Every structure is written in structure tokens, then in C-alpha cells.
């Protein structure tokens, strides 16, 4: 049989039983789209959790040394590293008592403006005067611009999310001196660069044996993504899609036998039915891609490119596996004994 | 030639010996279970004899050779569903490497010769049982295979359609093919050149 005739016969075979064709296309479309939609949804959930974790500081690395302190000057230099958004420090300088803070003295600290930007992204760098934690400002009744003793309140920072223990702190904003020691150096990394930055910080501050590098907030673990169940859903989709394919090819075994007993080589007959049903799976997979795009448009609010890529990958993985197994099924049915297949009454 | 089903001690085909010349029609008669279909399978290479052989021009032929030499007509009318009569008939020529135009043209001529000129483009499911059988016979006619085996081809047909189908088989024989028909219908085997009654097997 000529190759062009084989392909033509396959295409005619694909559409010659409309009910089965519709069943396969519909099953493939829905079964292959569902894992993709699940993957997109999982990625969106992960993106949201990462966003929430980063708001609480999962991308902030803290360098400290209980015995010797860390160099404030070196800390500020980290701010120019690739992958670093801000690097800032603070140093406790004792307590301070104002007339209105009769209850307890407030903690006083020197801090770089970058540190305060990490603690509260809404902090405006460059403002002079004292900076108060929100609880301290409330306790003192001192909003931004108020006067405390001889100083003006330059800003009030919200410490709730990233430094809840510093709500009653009073910061004196300043630059690092060359030999100044800080209690902690805080480094905010770009999303996705946190671990790299943490490794580099260990190397940069390593001469001290008592140096400690930790994350401000332990957020989403990489295993949350690598161990997600949705990544295997396409395998179930392949099994579901193969059901009507196998059923249809088996029901059509007398047609395959007819080709063979008419002189068509078994492998050509198997190819006709593999190509015909693989074509239907491909049509269904195209529909699944469309459904995935629709699902993506409906639910994807973050990480758009990755979300789309992972959804399409799920569809293509399922379609490719189904296509391959369809060829196996068609070949297996073509190898059935002709004596029974050619007399089949279905 | 002898044959017993695997695991069965009883030989359903026993000492069968027959010689046929091209252009001959032969009927295999006998009740259900007498081995008519099994004998066709053996001749057509779908089964392997326990002993003995099928020979073409006195040369024993393997199963593959016999399959390649045989065209089939079955009672169940195996067909390409959803396809037209001409498409079903043309696959015999397409299998031999003919192009689509040539195959369709030849199929149309042969369908017209067997009285199906008005049914060529009808889907197979819309044809009567007799018409479907004649399409199968056209497929055999177009095939270059010298042997035509028909298993109860008129089992589901009325008298008029049966006569038309037997006429078609005679056409195949006139084209030089050997036609062997398993049947229990006297109106069929009475019109054939030879007849073997499997009830009379030793």
C-alpha cells in the first residue's frame, strides 16, 4: 500500500465512526486538560504562599555573631551584590525614657535606612530624625513629624510582619562607620536568589567561627513543589484516555483483519488504526490546550509564563504518552489471530 | 490433511484430500460443527494442519503463502464501517499498490458489473446483506489472489439475494479463481462445480 494511501485511509478511518471519534476526542480533551488545570492551580497556590512568605521575610537572610558582632560597613557593601535588594544593619544602644513612656523604657538602636526598608517596605529613606516602631509611636502619641525632646519623628515603621519584637523600638538612622560593629545584618534577596545569597553571605562573613546565618522566616520549602501530587496526574489522564481508544480499536479488529486479509501488511494496517486514533487524541489534546489556556486565564494571577508552560507541558506529556500507547494498542490488536478477528460480528 | 483443535483428542478434519483447478467452484457442506469453517481456515492459512499440507501446483504452501493467496468472504460481512461501497471494494487494489484513482475506477466498474451501480457511494451500513456480500465479492474479484474462500456467505440472505451472490461467485470463477464456499444451503451448492460433504469424511 502506498504511504499516501495509508495516511488517507487512516484519516478516513478516524472519522468513519463519528460516535467513537467524538468519545475519544472528548475524553482526551477533558482528561488531558484536568491535570494541566490542576498544575496551574497548584502553581498559583504556591505563588501565593511564596508571596505571603516573602512578605513575612522568607527572602531575608540575617547574619549575626553573638560574640563579636558583624561589621556594619561590610553589611552595607552587600547591598551592591547581584540578587540583593537591600542590606542593612542595626545595633542596640540601650534604652531611652521619654516623659510619655512612663510605663517602661523603650529600646534604642542605631540602624541603617536600608535595614528599616527591609523591616517596612513603606519606609521612606532619607528622612531625618528619629524613627519609631508603631507601638512606640502610639504609646508616645508621636506620629510622623512630632517632636520628642529635641528630636523630630522622621517616620514610623510597621514592624508587625517582619520584626514584631521591635514594635517599641526607637531608631537612630545613620550610616556605618568603618569599624562599626552591628548586632545583626539583614539582607533582602530577590525572589529566587535567597539561597544563593545565603551561601555567599556565609563565605563573606566566614572568618568568624561564631557567625550565624539564618532566614528571617522559614517559608515555602522546595519539596512543597517537587512532591506535589498534581505532577503525576497526567499519568491517570493517559489511562483514562486510553480506555475509549483501546475499546474502539478492539471493536474495530474485524476492520483491521479485513485490511490484512485483503493484502494490506499487518504493520500498515496497525499504522492506519494507530494513526487514526492518535489523530483523534491529538485533536482532543488541542482542545485540552485550549481549555488549559482558558483555565490559565481564569486562575493565573501570578507567574504567568511558568504557569502557562507547566500547564501546556502537562497536556503535551499526557498526549505524547497516549499517542505512543495508542500505537502499541493498535499493533497488539493487529496481531490478534485473523481467524477470529475476520469473523468478528461487532 | 488432518486437524484437531489444541487440547482436543478428536480430529475435526480427518484425511481430507482434494484437488482443484483454477476456475472451479466447490461447496463444502455439512451441519454446524462438521468442520467447514475450520477447513477454510486451514486452506486459507489461518490455521496450521496437524499433519498434511495445502499445496499450490503440487508445492506445499506455508501459512503465510496461503494467507497471501487467499481472499475472504465471510457470513458476517466484515467491512470498513462508515465507508462507502466503492471504498470497501477498492482496498483490494490499494493493498496491491494501486493509486486511489485507479483503484476507485476499477472498483466502480466491478460493482456495476455485479448490479451495484446505484449503490457505489452508499455507506456500507445502508446496503442490504446481499449487497454487502456482493461488495465483498467485488473485493475478491479485484484482488490478484487466486483463491477465494467464502464462509456461509448466504447464511443471512433471502432466495433472490442468494441467487445474485452465487452468480457473483461464478463470475469470480470465470475470472480464473478457485472459489470454495462453506454452506449448508442446497440452492448454493447445487449450482457449484464440485461438492464435498464433510459428514462423509472417513
Biggest β-sheet description of chain B: 5 strands, parallel
The unreliable regions of chain A are none
The largest sheet of chain B has its strands arranged as: 6-7-8-3-9
Helicity level of chain A, as a percent range? 40-55%
DSSP helix count of chain B? 7
Mean pLDDT of chain A: 87
Tell me which oligomeric state these chains represent.
heterodimer
Name the strands of the widest sheet of chain A in spatial order.
6-7-5-8-4-3-10-1-11
Fraction in beta strands of chain B = 15-25%
Note the run of SSEs of chain B as H and E: EEEHEEHEHHHEHEHE
Structural class of chain B: alpha/beta
Shape of chain B: globular
Give the overall average pLDDT of chain B: 88
Helix content of chain B: 25-40%
Number of strands of chain A: 11
* Straight-line distance between termini of chain B: 12 Å
Give Rg of chain A in angstroms. Answer: 33 Å
SSE series of chain A: HHEEHEEHEHEEEEEHEHHHHHH
Show the largest interface.
A-B, 28 and 32 residues
Short description:
Chain A has helices at residues 3-16, 18-55, 72-78, 113-119, 134-140, 194-204, 222-226, 233-251, 253-261, 266-299, 304-334, 338-341, and strands spanning 60-65, 70-71, 84-96, 106-111, 130-133, 147-148, 151-157, 169-173, 181-182, 184-189, 211-215. Chain A is an alpha+beta fold and 346 residues long.
How does this model look, in words?
The complex is a heterodimer of chains A (346) and B (202). Chain A is of the alpha+beta class and 346 residues long. Chain A is built from 12 helices and 11 strands. Chain A has helices at 3-16, 18-55, 72-78, 113-119, 134-140, 194-204, 222-226, 233-251, 253-261, 266-299, 304-334, 338-341, and strands at residues 60-65, 70-71, 84-96, 106-111, 130-133, 147-148, 151-157, 169-173, 181-182, 184-189, 211-215. In chain A, the strands form 2 sheets. A 9-stranded mixed β-sheet of chain A has the order 6-7-5-8-4-3-10-1-11, with helices on both faces. In chain A, helix 2 packs antiparallel against helix 8 (233-251). The longest helix of chain A has 38 residues, at 18-55. The mean pLDDT of chain A is 87. In chain B, helix 4 (100-113) crosses helix 5. Chain B has helices spanning 36-43, 63-69, 85-95, 100-113, 129-142, 159-174, 186-189; strands spanning 3-4, 11-13, 25-29, 55-56, 59-60, 70-74, 147-151, 178-182, 194-197. The longest helix of chain B is centred in the last third of the chain and has 16 residues, at 159-174. Chain B has a 5-stranded parallel β-sheet, sandwiched between helices. Chain B has a two-stranded antiparallel sheet with strand order 1-2. In chain B, strands 4-5 form a two-stranded antiparallel ribbon. Chain B is an alpha/beta fold. Chain A binds chain B through residues 1-2, 5, 8-9, 12-13, 15-18, 252, 254-255, 257-259, 261-264, 337-339, 342-345, and chain B through 37, 41, 46-47, 67-68, 70-72, 74-76, 78-83, 87, 91-92, 94-97, 99-100, 139, 143-145, 151.
Amino acid at each position: 500500500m502506498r504511504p499516501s494511501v495509508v495516511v488517507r485511509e487512516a484519516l478516513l478511518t478516524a472519522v468513519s465512526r463519528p460516535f467513537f471519534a467524538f468519545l475519544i476526542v472528548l475524553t482526551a480533551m477533558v482528561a488531558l486538560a484536568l491535570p494541566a488545570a490542576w498544575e496551574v492551580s497548584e502553581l498559583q497556590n504556591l505563588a501565593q504562599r511564596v508571596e505571603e512568605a516573602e512578605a513575612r521575610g522568607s527572602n531575608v537572610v540575617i547574619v549575626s555573631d553573638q560574640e563579636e558582632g558583624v561589621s556594619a560597613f561590610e553589611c552595607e557593601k552587600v547591598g551592591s551584590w547581584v540578587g540583593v535588594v537591600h542590606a542593612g544593619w542595626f545595633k542596640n544602644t540601650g534604652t531611652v525614657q521619654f516623659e510619655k513612656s512612663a510605663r517602661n523604657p523603650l529600646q534604642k538602636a542605631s540602624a541603617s535606612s536600608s535595614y528599616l526598608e527591609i523591616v517596612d517596605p513603606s519606609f521612606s529613606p532619607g528622612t531625618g530624625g528619629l524613627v519609631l516602631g508603631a507601638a512606640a509611636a502610639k504609646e508616645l502619641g508621636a506620629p510622623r513629624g512630632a517632636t520628642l525632646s529635641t528630636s523630630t519623628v522622621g517616620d514610623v515603621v510597621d514592624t508587625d510582619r517582619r520584626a514584631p519584637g521591635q514594635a517599641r523600638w526607637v531608631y537612630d538612622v545613620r550610616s556605618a562607620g568603618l569599624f562599626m560593629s552591628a548586632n545583626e545584618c539583614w539582607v533582602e534577596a530577590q525572589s529566587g536568589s535567597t539561597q544563593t545569597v545565603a551561601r555567599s553571605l556565609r563565605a563573606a562573613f566566614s572568618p568568624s567561627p561564631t557567625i550565624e546565618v539564618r532566614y528571617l522566616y522559614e517559608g515555602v520549602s522546595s519539596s512543597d513543589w517537587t512532591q506535589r501530587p498534581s505532577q503525576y496526574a497526567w499519568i491517570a489522564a493517559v489511562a483514562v484516555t486510553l480506555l475509549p481508544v483501546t475499546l474502539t480499536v478492539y471493536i474495530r479488529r474485524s476492520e483491521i483483519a479485513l485490511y490484512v486479509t485483503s493484502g494490506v501488511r499487518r504493520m500498515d494496517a496497525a499504522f492506519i488504526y494507530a494513526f487514526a486514533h492518535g489523530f483523534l487524541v491529538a485533536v482532543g489534546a488541542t482542545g485540552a490546550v485550549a481549555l488549559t489556556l482558558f483555565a490559565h486565564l481564569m486562575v493565573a494571577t501570578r507567574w504567568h509564563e511558568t504557569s502557562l508552560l507547566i500547564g501546556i507541558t502537562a497536556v503535551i506529556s499526557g498526549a505524547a504518552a497516549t499517542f505512543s500507547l495508542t500505537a502499541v494498542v493498535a499493533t497488539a490488536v493487529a496481531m490478534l489471530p485473523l481467524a477470529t478477528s475476520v469473523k468478528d460480528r461487532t | 490433511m488432518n486437524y484437531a483443535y489444541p487440547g482436543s483428542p478428536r480430529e475435526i478434519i480427518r484425511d481430507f484430500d482434494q484437488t482443484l483447478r483454477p476456475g472451479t467452484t466447490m461447496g463444502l457442506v455439512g451441519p454446524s460443527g462438521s468442520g467447514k469453517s475450520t477447513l477454510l481456515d486451514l486452506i486459507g492459512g489461518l490455521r496450521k494442519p496437524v499433519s498434511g499440507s495445502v499445496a499450490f501446483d503440487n508445492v506445499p504452501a506455508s501459512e503465510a503463502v496461503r494467507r497471501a493467496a487467499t481472499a475472504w468472504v465471510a457470513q458476517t460481512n466484515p467491512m470498513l464501517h462508515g465507508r462507502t461501497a466503492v471504498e470497501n471494494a477498492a482496498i483490494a487494489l490499494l493493498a496491491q499498490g494501486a493509486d486511489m484513482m485507479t483503484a476507485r475506477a476499477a472498483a466502480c466498474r466491478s460493482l456495476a458489473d455485479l448490479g451495484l451501480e446505484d449503490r457505489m457511494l452508499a455507506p456500507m451500513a445502508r446496503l442490504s446483506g446481499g449487497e454487502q456480500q456482493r461488495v465483498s465479492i467485488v473485493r475478491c474479484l479485484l484482488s490478484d489472489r487466486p483463491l477465494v474462500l467464502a464462509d456461509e456467505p448466504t447464511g443471512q440472505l433471502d432466495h433472490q439475494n442468494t441467487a445474485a451472490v452465487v452468480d457473483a461467485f461464478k463470475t469470480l470463477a470465470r475470472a480464473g479463481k478457485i472459489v470454495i464456499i462453506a454452506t449448508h444451503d442446497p440452492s448454493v451448492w447445487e449450482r457449484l462445480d464440485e461438492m464435498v460433504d464433510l459428514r462423509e469424511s472417513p
